[in-house]
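Methods: holo model generation. Sequences were used as deposited, without trimming of termini or removal of tags, and paired with ligand SMILES retrieved from the corresponding compound records. Each pair was processed once, and we did not select among multiple samples. The sequence and magnesium ion SMILES for this entry were:
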Amino acid sequence: MKKICFYIQKGGVGKTSVSGTVAANLARKGKKTVYLDCDPQGNASSWYCGETIEHDIADVLARRATLAQAIQAVNPSLSMVPVVAIGGTLKEWAETKLQQNPKAFEFLSQDLAALGFEFAIYDCSPSFSQLERALIADADEVINPLSPEFFSVDGIEIFLAELRKIEDAYRRTIRNDKIVLNMVNKSFARHREFQRVIQKLHYHIFTIPQDAKIAECQIAHQSLYDYAPGAKSLEGFESLTSALL
Ligand SMILES: Nc1ncnc2c1ncn2[C@@H]1O[C@H](COP(=O)(O)OP(=O)(O)O)[C@@H](O)[C@H]1O
Ligand SMILES: [Mg+2]
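and the model returned the structure below.
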């Protein structure tokens, strides 16, 4: 099972939108995929699961519920492990219990693999606490979504320095060669200029344009594929998904 985290230590750049759409695309291509909401804010869960969350990822980690109890079917091909945002306990669990359970995510991913999942897609919060470090440490790959702004280049450098520390601490190599340049509007000169700057870095760059359908499908609690099968951003998501297969 391939474990992929969508992470950058910045909010509002599209981590949830991109991870949720890639997870949905992998699933519709016939890959058995589970999407895990690891952001205590729960945006991915409100997008795909709405209000109906009985057991969440924190319950599984704290062994109050089994994985089978927490997994929800978003549609026939996509499964999700949601998080309860309001009144939820993921943040508290990470702050008080993760240290004593350093292998918690390793065990969770072993259990997911045993259920036959081929891809586990993790949506992360923009903080850089022990929770995000532990998720990244267990991942095969981290993909960085960025918005086309000048400061995003600094963000990538800061992330890379932290990633190297995690790799040293856990003695493993974590793939990090893809950037998703999200919300690009080619009619803005500064976006074109930023694209030029970012292309000089040694990453594969995937571009997703500004697309109102992305925000709309979240309000409708649907994947972009179900909500807007002709959306202009789907081409970018297709290239990114193909690169993961
Ligand atoms: N390509 C895009 N075009 C237009 N709006 C987008 C795009 N990507 C994300 N959004 C919107 O931007 C906001 C922030 O995206 P989100 O995925 O929640 O970011 P993050 O998870 O990094 O905080 C959301 O309202 C989302 O619907
Ligand atoms: Mg998010």
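The chain has one domain: 2-222.
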